[in-house]
Amino acid sequence: MAMSVNTNVQAMVALQNLNQTTRMLDETQTRINTGLKVNGAEDNAAIYAIAQNMRADVSALSAVMQSVNRATSIVDVSLAAGETISDLLVQMKEKVVAANDPSLDTASRAAFNEDFQALLEQIQTVTANAVFDGANLLDGSITSIAILADADALNTITLQAEDLSVSGSIITLASTANLSTITAASSALSALNTSLANVNAALARIGSTAKKLETHLVFVQKLEDAVTAGIGNLVDADLADESAKLQALQVKQQLGVQALSIANTRPQIILSLFGR
User: Fold this and answer.
1) Which of 254, 211, 236, 204 lies closest to 83 in space, CA to CA?
2) Residue 252: pLDDT band by 50, 70, 90 thresholds?
3) pTM, entire model
4) DSSP assignment letter at 133
């Protein structure tokens, strides 16, 4: 090979190798710093696009979970209110049965009637206050609520309302019911028995909805975890492997610097050819 001071092939080759090693070292350091082997589209366009689509799915699933959690709260409030109403009806039955005693005097009947009216009013208060985030499934203001069920917003879960208003289809006990006479007490008892059975059936339906929401929430959480794990499999760096690679590249970089230094001294040999 000709010796020249204008073109140092060995130095150019050493510099190319050193630059390549430096690029690989920078890439490895970036992976260690970020924990990702695919940080952007320039690293792997196809994998990055797939990962971004999956990240969008994770974000959408988070929105679904928020919707299901809101629905769960609505149902929990409705269930608590419904159970309270059922307890109130049980208390009312005691008063109504007692008022059906024909031997009661006027004062006792009036006392029972007063308690009965207070409990009836309490049912109306509980129904009116069974609200979460503006939604009330028990006062007859709505018939149903639809919530998100999937990340594509194509499917929904429907929460059916249960109208527990007094004088309604479930609580058939009239708002004007009273125990002032034995006849009125007998009529109230019949309506109360029907209302109690209807309310308990409504509670069973609300409970089933609560269980459905709980099951769906667990499913969505598992699905989100699975998609997140899939993203990790695509883009996460193996830090143990990257650590070993880092050490090897650091040694290789040092050797490349030495090789370049040696190659840069080759033209000095030419000076000895012109020495005296």
Assistant:
1) 204
2) confident
3) 0.78
4) T
